[in-house]
Structure prediction request, 362 residues.
Amino acid sequence: MTAKARIRRDIAAMSAYTPTTSLEVFAERLGREAAALIKLDANENPYGPSPRAREALAQLAQMHIYPDPESGRLRALLADYCGAPAANILCGAGADELIELVFQLFIEPGDVILDAPPTFAMYSFNAPLYHARAVEVPRRDDFSLDIPALEAAARQQRAKLLFLCSPNNPSGNLLPRRDIERLLRLPLTVVLDEAYIEFAEAESLAALAARLPNLIVLRTFSKWAGLAGLRVGYGIFPSALMPHLWKIKQPYNVNVAADIAAQASLEDADFLLRRARQLSGQRQRLEAALGALPYLAPYPSRANFVLSRVIGMSAADLRDRLAARGIIVRYYDKPRLRDHIRISAGSPAQVDRLLAALQAIA
Ligand SMILES: Cc1ncc(COP(=O)(O)O)c(C=O)c1O
Prediction:
């Protein structure tokens, strides 16, 4: 038997997920200098890390020593930042790792997870890897959740997990708190992904996760703190789950650079939150300007990106025409989103260039 024939048959048959890639790879593909490109496809922070995080990284001396497996100092700072006890917080290599950890903790073959597409792809991505069945309860036309359908599916399918995202990626809408509270009455665990909450100027449910038995809140340093490349996120979990999470977490999942940069970011949180507000301002500017173009219909967003329907033109073509001008935006080759593009809020100068390109295309 060849090595290839020995790999899991379900993985051999799986289709590949294509994540976004680095600026350098885009530059090579487009035959341009990386410095000339504007990357607005992955909701990254165009300003990068805070000066304090850069300074902490420049001073980093202990690269030959394993990190603190408990991320103790980072969790203490996070407790202050998000108002939940450190004992209920677990850090990971991005929120992505914590999503997978939730699957590892809960899912046995055949278990059901509920997903409300269009939403972040990583929830359903993990399902086949853990032999979970992902049951989709599509959002309504305005991307709000279909609460009665979710309640019915939860009961009929005996779902174990429900993944929610607020503000939702890619639509940008915030979930009303009363909807989340209603869904928390279901006999399942709600995983609420708040990756973009710092842009929403809305209340986080992080503190509530430490008090309830069935709410997990996931957060990240990738967006508001500009650390996407370092991979650091965290979750706030019900107390009863914590001992089991510690058993299954990879011991050194948060590397020393990510750990120290995340700590420095929290010490500079006011500065970073001001920048997040500036990005929300650029998102508002984008919403208004896109809405004024005859071929785009943007949806209201509370995150650092705007999803728009593309009218009278192919969204994939629009993506390509912007790429030819050095501007990278997100296109989804998925049934409900095929005529949409998602554009991240950039710096004012980046948004100027994007809007000029969109006007030239029109
Ligand atoms: C909703 C949502 N959750 C989680 C993530 C991943 O976060 P991280 O970079 O911390 O893995 C993203 C990244 O785009 C996201 O959009």
Remarks:
- The chain has two domains: 3-48+270-361, 61-268.
- The first strand starts at residue 38 and ends at 40.
- The chain has a mean pLDDT of 96.
